[in-house]
Specification:
With 283 residues, the protein is α+β, with helices and mostly antiparallel strands. The protein is 23% helix and 28% strand. The protein has six helices and 13 strands. The strands form three sheets. It has a five-stranded antiparallel sheet with strand order 4-3-7-9-8, with no helix packed on it. A four-stranded antiparallel sheet has the order 1-2-6-5, with no helix packed on it. Strand 1 and strand 2 form a beta hairpin.
Length: 283
Amino acid sequence: MITTEPIRSPQLNRLQHELESGNKEPLKLFWKRIKEQGTPLVEEFESDSQDRIVTFLWQTGGGTKSVALVSQMTKPTTCPMTRLLDTDLWYITLQLPANLRATYRFLPSDLPASAKGAFDVSRAEYRSDPFNPKVFAFYDDKEDPTGLKVTHSVLELPNAAPQPWIEPQGYVSKGKVQLHQLQSRILGNERRVWVYSPAKYTAGLGQPYPLFVLFDGWAYARLIPTFTILDNLVAARVIPPVVVVLLDSLDAETRSRELVFYKPFNDFLVTEFLPWVLTQYAI
């Protein structure tokens, strides 16, 4: 986490000086430029630094008493933003590593910052950055129509590591994904299981395939482009063709119980789960 420091954006400094002189036109031009180039506002230090000056911006109408940046980049994770004079511009400026990739949201409120905490509001009150087209969606459970979709904005600074494996490639053969329901007598519950078999998978011929098991299966099946990554890695021969089984974690309470050295869950894996996979796939 990056603890917020009183760093000021050079562009915002200039804008404030112009506004204090009584000229309101620069604010209109500033917002016009921001809408064209997108946010956050990223500036370099005068010195040869590996960091960047990153300013998160929120434009608001009347009635807003506070705005906060919500992210894992700051400590605390909900960090109050500052209003620029009496304008519609709220901001927070951070010094961040130039290779950072992270997500963030905003929490505008009609209450003062001291009167409303991050844990007192529903997810529906958080907002993504309207000037940033890069987003990451959570809780968009296609198999569960009651799932709540929450959209986070994505910050990618200039030196962020490339992610060559996450994009579909037209020349790469795709594996097959099947969704199953697996009942456990030991655990007394049923869960979704996604199984990825590689392109040209054949059962009963040649050597069995390596098995790769992922817990938090829904997250890997829906939030992370796991199947695209596997297709690309297999095609590039970075890994051999592999069968990947993604076990759903059901809910937070069940996950917290089962994934922390819980003997019934271990018994389920050994006596129910693995035998089931062996009957279904050549591993």
